[in-house]
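Example record used in the benchmark description.
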Amino acid sequence: MNEIVRSTIPILPYDVNVATWHALERARLTSIGKTPAFADGQIAAVAKVNGLILVTNNVSDYQDFLEVTVVNWFVT
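Model output (structure tokens):
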């Protein structure tokens, strides 16, 4: 199954650029009293750094992240 998934779905890395954006954004949000779930920050960071649209039904989990385009796939 691993080969099937890897051959059909790109797996984006959590690299130094993603980690840096995540850390800076997490620090910004924490400074204004908002602490998102760590995994949500990682997901937002991967989307932001790779110039992707984050598609989710949990739009409110990502509303405070700067410059992350979020689309609710249940509505759109």
